[in-house]
Design goal:
With about 150 residues, the protein is of the alpha+beta class. The chain contains three helices and four strands, in the order αααββββ. The chain folds into two domains: about 1-75; about 80-149. Helices cover about 55% and strands about 25% of the residues. It has a four-stranded antiparallel sheet with strand order 1-2-3-4, covered by helices on one side.
């Protein structure tokens, strides 16, 4: 969630910088009073060029703002804290059965948004252990879903 906010802050800064650039370039154009002495058709051409420059600046600013939001929002991944929480959830789920004891849980990052591993569960009565495969995935919002077989 912090990464999403960072992307929006950077996008806002880019937008403000673009507006400042437009204001500065417009003031620069206002200082040139010699435009009034130019023929009307040349003045219209200059206005067209200035208008195109403003349009280009706006488009570039919007593109940069979109890239900033995308860049930071696509950086959602499993943290060490999230992995520990998933391990705790797996342990709690298996130990709801009073005859089961979780011996070991191993989860490794295959990609930033996908974990794979195993859980070793021992039966307290028979002392036999079994190993199950586990995986966890994370969506774009940072919500995770795990499953063990």
């Amino acid at each position: 969630m912090i990464l999403h906010a960072t992307g929006f802050v950077i996008a806002g800064i880019i937008g403000i910088a673009a507006l400042a650039y437009l204001a500065i370039s417009e003031n620069r154009g206002a200082k040139h009073e010699s435009r009034a002495s130019l023929p009307v058709d040349v003045q219209k051409q200059l206005e067209t060029v200035v208008g195109l420059r403003r349009f280009q600046t706006g488009v570039i600013a919007l593109l940069l703002m979109g890239v900033a939001v995308w860049w930071f929002s696509s950086r959602v991944e499993f943290t060490d804290t999230a992995i520990s929480a998933i391990k705790t959830n797996i342990r709690d789920a298996y130990e709801k059965d009073p005859t089961s004891e979780v011996v070991e849980i191993a989860l490794l990052r295959e990609t930033p948004r996908h974990l794979a591993g195993s859980v070793k569960v021992r039966n307290k009565l028979t002392k036999q252990a079994r190993i199950g495969e586990c995986s966890a995935t994370m969506d774009d919002r940072g919500a995770s879903l795990w499953q063990c077989k």
